[in-house]
């Protein structure tokens, strides 16, 4: 092997990760199977696990659980600063019972208020209180800082194509 080939091989070995080892193992025991998709999906799964851990730690520093943040941030982004419990459950992909528990916890902390809808008293509207707004904004800024730091190793020119491919994949899975 020439010097350039040796350098390329060292670069490849230096960049191998746990997923490469898993793929190599499957290729060894089931050589007839195409394990190429694992290179994408196993890394996405591992990234999601690691990022969830980072998010949980960052949110805990603000006294929030991930579910609490999801509720507060959904309300914060809403045009009129309120959402129904049903809208929150749908946006957060949880059951109405889970959402009720989350809202109860946030009401008890004084971060949101709950009231009956003016047009239909059966509908519960949830509104962000000033302290909830302060906490969710601070937590969001911290999450952005972490995300910028994590993406710092990816060149700017490579980010948009990555976003585009992930969007395409998510659209296919959600369809």
Describe the structure.
The protein is mainly alpha-helical. Helices cover 70% and strands 7% of the residues. It contains eight helices and three strands. It has helices at 3-14, 18-29, 36-60, 66-77, 85-92, 96-108, 130-151, 156-174; strands spanning 82-84, 112-116, 124-128. Strands 1-3-2 form a three-stranded antiparallel β-sheet. Helix 3 crosses helix 7 (130-151) and helix 4 (66-77) packs across helix 7. The longest helix has 25 residues, at 36-60. The radius of gyration is 22 Å and the shape is elongated. The relative contact order is 0.09.
Note the main attributes of this structure.
7% strand; mainly alpha; 175 residues
Summarize the structure.
The chain has 8 helices and 3 strands. The model has no long low-confidence stretch (mean pLDDT 91). Strands 1-3-2 form a 3-stranded antiparallel sheet.
Layout of strands and helices, then pairs:
Elements (H helix, E strand, L loop, with lengths): L2 H12 L3 H12 L6 H25 L5 H12 L4 E3 H8 L3 H13 L3 E5 L7 E5 L1 H22 L4 H19 L1
Antiparallel strand pairs: 1-3, 2-3
Proportion of residues in helical segments: over 70%
Specify the biggest β-sheet.
3 strands, antiparallel
- Radius of gyration, taken over Cα atoms and rounded to an integer in Å: 22 Å
- Which structural class fits the helix and strand makeup? mainly alpha
Helix count, DSSP H or I runs of 4 or more residues: 8
Strand content: 5-15%
Secondary-structure element order, as H and E? HHHHEHHEEHH
Give unreliable regions as ranges: none
| Shape, per Cα inertia axes | elongated
Strand line-up across the major sheet: 1-3-2
Q: Give the beta-strand count.
A: 3
The average pLDDT score comes to: 91
- Termini separation comes to 48 Å
């Amino acid at each position: 092997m020439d010097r350039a080939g040796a350098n390329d091989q060292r670069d490849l070995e230096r960049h191998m990760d746990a997923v490469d080892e898993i793929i190599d193992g499957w290729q060894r025991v089931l050589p007839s199977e195409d394990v190429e998709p694992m290179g994408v999906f196993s890394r996405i799964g591992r990234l999601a696990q690691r990022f969830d851990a980072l998010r949980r730690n960052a949110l805990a520093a603000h006294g929030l659980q991930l579910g609490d943040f999801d509720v507060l941030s959904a309300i914060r982004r809403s045009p009129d600063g309120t959402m129904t419990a049903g809208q929150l459950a749908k946006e957060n992909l949880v059951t109405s019972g889970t959402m009720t528990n989350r809202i109860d916890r946030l009401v008890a902390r004084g971060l949101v208020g709950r009231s009956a809808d003016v047009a239909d008293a059966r509908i519960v509207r949830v509104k962000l209180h000033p302290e909830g707004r302060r906490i969710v904004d601070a937590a969001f800024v911290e999450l952005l800082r972490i995300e910028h730091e994590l993406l710092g190793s990816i060149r700017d020119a490579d980010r948009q194509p990555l976003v585009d491919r992930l969007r395409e994949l998510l659209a296919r899975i959600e369809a």
